[in-house]
Design goal:
The protein is α/β, with parallel strands linked by helices. Helix content is 40%, strand content 15%.
Length: 343
């Protein structure tokens, strides 16, 4: 079975010097394992560890796995940060796992990655599929939303984005246990439930448009593979981003993987070929809207393997209902540590 780490690292040269964006306590390529990677985060190391200690969902033994932060900045300012260090064009890869969707200005981030990467260097990202996570009831982000954020030089989520996220927040009901998302290939989208916070969301919206408020983190981009791929191609055609698309995968679980490359030599885009391909991409976007993407095989999966996985999942669910809650949690924790030791 294909694992997410392999999909994330598929196109990068791990021996090169690279950058990982906000890995927190779970870096894909850790310094302690000998990788030449610089960690970028909006918080410094001490602040990250303090935040982790205050989070009851993070085991104490994971706090030590938070690595030293080398560049303190928000990801959208990556280009400025590497230029200030005199390191533009010196990195073989940039890794980002579940960070891209939080960025108020994705275009500026992509431009910053291009500044950081050497020719042939790769940007690899894991991005949540909005259809399969707590964004389930939100509409997909449009290119016009990105353009407005870019030209407004947005440095935090707009009041409208925060309202949209809060008023349409979803939870997945897994046999009485609420989760932040589901497996798009195996689960039933009808089990998503809205949280019904419309009034509170509007009250916060009114506060944010009337006076300055503290930064609130949220998903600024809601998307899925076909939709994001189409926007990235559009940005390249418009000359706003020079990165070439290597691959955008199908969704595995609740995330998909995006790989882009800094071109070695620039090549003009043929408008006729671009628009012909764009028509195909747009139809794929329409075909994937709503719940249409559910039940389809992801990377490394087939219809036969999905049937087998559904049977295993039903068996696990039956057994878990028979076991005490603490026993189930202990088994899951042990299994997580076992998987991590493989890498």
């Amino acid at each position: 079975m294909v694992d997410r780490r392999s999909l994330l690292l598929k196109h990068i040269d791990a021996a090169a010097q690279g950058i990982e964006i906000a890995p927190y306590f779970n870096p894909a390529l850790a310094k302690r394992d000998g990788y030449r990677v610089l960690t970028v985060d909006v918080f410094d190391t001490d602040a990250l560890r303090q935040n982790a200690r205050a989070d009851p969902s993070i085991p104490d033994d994971r706090i030590a796995e938070i690595e030293e932060v080398d560049i303190v900045c928000d990801a959208s300012s990556l280009g400025q940060a590497v230029t200030g260090l005199g390191k533009q064009g010196q990195f073989g890869y940039v890794l980002s796992s579940h960070n891209f969707e939080h960025l108020p200005d994705p275009i500026r981030f992509l431009q910053g990655c291009s500044l950081a990467l050497s020719p042939g260097g790769v940007l690899s990202m894991a991005v949540p599929d909005g259809r399969a996570c707590f964004d389930h009831f939100r509409m997909p982000t449009r290119l016009s939303d990105w353009l407005q954020a870019y030209h407004d030089q947005r440095s935090q989520p707009s009041p409208e984005t925060i309202f949209d996220a809060l008023s349409n927040l979803a939870q997945y009901d897994r046999v009485g246990k609420l989760a932040v998302g589901c497996d798009i290939s195996l689960d039933d989208p009808r089990h998503f439930q809205p949280t019904n916070d419309l009034g509170d969301a509007y009250a916060e919206y009114l506060e944010r448009i009337s006076s300055p408020q503290p930064y609130r983190d949220t998903h600024c981009t809601v998307t899925f593979g076909a939709a994001l791929e189409n926007m990235l191609w559009d940005l390249r055609f418009l000359g706003l981003v020079d990165l070439e698309i290597i691959e955008v995968t199908e969704t595995l679980g609740l995330e998909f993987f995006v790989h882009m490359r800094k071109p070695v030599t620039s090549a003009p885009v043929d408008p006729k070929a671009f628009y012909a391909a764009r028509a195909v991409r747009l139809r794929k976007v329409v075909d994937g809207l709503g719940t249409a993407g559910f039940g389809r095989p992801g990377p490394g999966q087939s219809a036969v393997s999905l049937t087998a996985q559904r049977a295993v999942r039903r068996s696990k669910s039956f057994i878990e209902r028979l076991l005490p809650t603490g026993t189930v949690a202990s088994i899951r924790s042990w299994n997580r540590r076992r998987k991590e030791r493989r890498h």
